[in-house]
Design brief:
By secondary structure, this protein is α+β, with helices and mostly antiparallel strands. It contains four helices and seven strands; from the N terminus they run H-E-E-E-E-H-E-E-E-H-H. Strands 4-1-6-5 form a four-stranded mixed β-sheet, with helices on one face.
Length: 151
């Protein structure tokens, strides 16, 4: 893990690579969380996070499923790559003026996963909900980068 000053240098000089988890419930709905952090604070978003330096993609996927969803021992091979996306933000996690954030995002759809929303960790999201693609595409509080996975 990097300290904040080092992480700001990385953000200022290179894109971040991340995995977004597209989580279906098997009933035509997908998991959304309301972000607590910048960038995209306050928007409904797909769960996910950065791949760390020297972390294999499968290990990152397993870590993110555990940290974001409380699901252990899941394998990337069981998910389906839905595309590679670029996310550009004018802001950053620390609120430093003039410092943008650029992500290269690997969007993976997991197999249908029953999840009790009340058990999800509150670290990255204040609330969670299920939404159909039609519902989330119509909702202005769902971030346009998440909508891109369904539109």
């Amino acid at each position: 893990m990097l300290d904040n000053a080092s992480f700001l240098q990385v953000i200022g000089n290179s894109p971040l690579i991340s995995i977004d988890l597209i989580v279906p419930d098997g009933q035509g709905r997908f998991l959304l969380g309301r972000r607590t952090n910048q960038p995209a604070k306050g928007y409904w978003f797909a769960p996910g996070g950065r791949i760390r330096k020297n972390e294999r993609m499968n290990d990152a996927y397993r870590r993110l499923c555990d940290m974001e969803l409380g699901l252990r021992n899941l394998e990337l091979a069981d998910a389906t790559l839905q595309g590679v996306h670029e996310h550009f933000y004018d802001s950053n996690f620390a609120g430093v003026t003039g410092l943008s954030t650029h992500y290269v995002v690997l969007a993976y759809e997991m197999p249908p996963t029953p999840i009790d929303l009340s058990t999800l960790p509150p670290d990255q999201h204040t609330d969670y909900r299920w939404a159909t693609p039609a519902e989330l595409l119509e909702d202005e509080t769902v971030h346009h980068y998440t909508k891109a996975y369904f539109g």
